[in-house]
């Protein structure tokens, strides 16, 4: 079997030109990164969804830089073939472009990430340009951006009005002009995501944005069926690990309570 080449930013970008779909999955720790990488995924996103699926927070807005760096380091230690993208948490890039550059540098230097992602369009384009100028590849993220949950008044599909559609088209164009290498399109109508994808040269990676994006991303716990919180319509579960894990732990409990574990096979003479 031929060894698959290390995924880099230029290789991800080239997939759009070649008409090849890009795959991205989140991971938050060493074993998760190993499994996602073994499955041949192009990009591992250490998403701030960490806050909701791993840390038990209500919103991603509660995740800190220190928490993101801790988990990014664990993923990077798996030395995946996939490109590792660190998600800049709420508060890490809003106050000033200088602070955004400093925090992006921390993702690369302390976290071992190879690129960063941040939420927003036109309003963060200048910040994106500054991070790119520092030599750090940036992935944009527009549409239903979870860090804006309070401004949106909930997790609502974006881009339904013609003004909102035009704004999202402008957002994608300004991220491309600022030097972003890709953009996540989250929670928007299929037609709009398709228009944005056609309008930009950089790849779009969709989540709840229909099939016409250049790639697709899912959250690890949604994909594996091991999250019990709210599951949006787009969160397709390819496994039911909640059941697998609960049944395994129940079998262990029953074995211990009945004196069946440990048996001779699992004991030292
Ligand atoms: O944090 C995350 O997991 C994300 C993806 C849903 C794109 O931002």
Description:
This protein has 269 residues and is of the alpha/beta class. The protein has 2 domains: 9-238, Phosphoenolpyruvate-binding domains (TIM Barrel), CATH 3.20.20; 242-269. It is 41% helix and 13% strand. An 8-stranded parallel beta barrel has the order 1-2-3-4-5-6-7-8, surrounded by 7 helices. The N and C termini lie far apart (43 Å). It binds 3-methyl-2-oxobutanoic acid.
What is the tally of helical segments? 11
The CATH topology of the largest domain is TIM Barrel
Question: What does the largest sheet look like?
Answer: 8 strands, parallel, barrel
Structure classification = alpha/beta
Radius of gyration: 20 Å
Strand order of the largest sheet: 1-2-3-4-5-6-7-8
CATH class of the largest domain: Alpha Beta
Tell me the CATH architecture of the largest domain: Alpha-Beta Barrel
β-strand percent reads: 5-15%
Task: Summarize the SSE layout with pairings.
Layout: H1 9-17, E1 22-26, H2 30-38, E2 43-46, H3 50-53, H4 65-76, E3 83-87, H5 97-109, E4 115-117, H6 125-133, E5 138-143, H7 149-152, H8 162-178, E6 182-186, H9 190-199, E7 204-207, E8 215-218, H10 220-224, H11 241-257
Helix pairs in contact: 5-6, 6-8, 8-9
Keywords for this entry:
binds 3-methyl-2-oxobutanoic acid; TIM Barrel; 269 residues
Could you write a compact summary of the structure shown?
The protein is an alpha/beta fold. It has helices at 9-17, 30-38, 50-53, 65-76, 97-109, 125-133, 149-152, 162-178, 190-199, 220-224, 241-257, and strands at 22-26, 43-46, 83-87, 115-117, 138-143, 182-186, 204-207, 215-218.
């Amino acid at each position: 079997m031929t060894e698959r080449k290390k995924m880099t930013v230029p290789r991800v970008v080239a997939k759009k030109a070649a008409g090849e779909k890009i795959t991205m999955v989140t991971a938050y720790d060493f074993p998760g990164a190993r499994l996602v990488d073994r499955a041949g995924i192009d990009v591992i996103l250490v998403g701030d969804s960490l806050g909701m699926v791993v840390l038990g927070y209500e919103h991603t807005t509660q995740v800190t830089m220190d928490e993101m760096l801790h988990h990014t380091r664990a993923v990077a230690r798996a030395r995946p073939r996939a490109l590792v993208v660190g998600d800049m948490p709420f508060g890490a890039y809003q106050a000033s472009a200088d602070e955004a550059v400093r925090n992006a540098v921390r993702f690369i230097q302390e976290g071992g990430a190879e690129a960063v992602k941040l939420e927003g369009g036109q309003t963060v384009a200048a910040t994106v340009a500054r991070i790119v100028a520092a030599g750090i590849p940036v992935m944009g993220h527009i549409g239903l951006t979870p860090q804006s949950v309070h401004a949106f008044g909930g997790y609502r599909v974006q881009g339904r009005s013609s003004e909102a559609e035009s704004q999202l088209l402008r957002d994608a164009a300004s991220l491309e002009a600022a030097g972003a290498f890709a953009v996540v399109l989250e929670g928007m109508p299929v037609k709009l995501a398709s228009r944005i994808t056609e309008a930009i040269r950089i790849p779009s990676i969709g989540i709840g944005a229909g099939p016409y994006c250049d790639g697709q991303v899912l959250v690890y716990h949604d994909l594996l069926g091991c999250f019990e919180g709210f599951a949006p319509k787009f969160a397709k579960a390819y496994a039911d690990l909640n059941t697998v894990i609960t049944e395994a732990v129940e079998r262990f409990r029953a074995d211990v309570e009945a004196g069946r574990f440990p048996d001779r096979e699992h004991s030292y003479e």
